[in-house]
Amino acid sequence: MSPGEPTSGLKRAQFSLGGMLLLMLVLGVSCAAAHYLVRGGPGAEGTQLSGLVLLLASPVLLLVAVSVMTSAWRLLRRRG
After folding, report:
1. How far apart are CA 52 and CA 32, in angstroms?
2. Which is it for the CA torsion 8, 23, 31, 37, positive or negative?
3. pTM
4. What is the reported pLDDT for 68?
5. Rounded distance, CA 45 to CA 17, Å?
6. How far is residue 44's CA from residue 37's CA, in Å, rounded to a whole number?
7. How far apart are CA 56 and CA 33, in angstroms?
8. 58, 30 in Cβ contact below 8 A?
9. Which of 20, 26, 29, 40 qualifies as a cystine partner to 44, CB 3.0-4.6 A?
10. Domain boundaries of the chain, sorted by first residue
């Protein structure tokens, strides 16, 4: 394939270290929430409740954290 030749439109997936760490964070939080939901049996309502809250609130908190970190990174890059 020569440099001037058009590509087929398919690109290989490229993951950065930050992207992989974010993926591991999302998977870890999801697995922890699932663990608390499954572990709660009869008489362990607090465990199920904490798993449910973690499962429902973690995506929103993760988006807020990533947004704040991205904004701070851009602000620091402009000033520096």
Report:
1. 10
2. negative
3. 0.50
4. 87
5. 38
6. 10
7. 9
8. yes
9. 40
10. 17-79
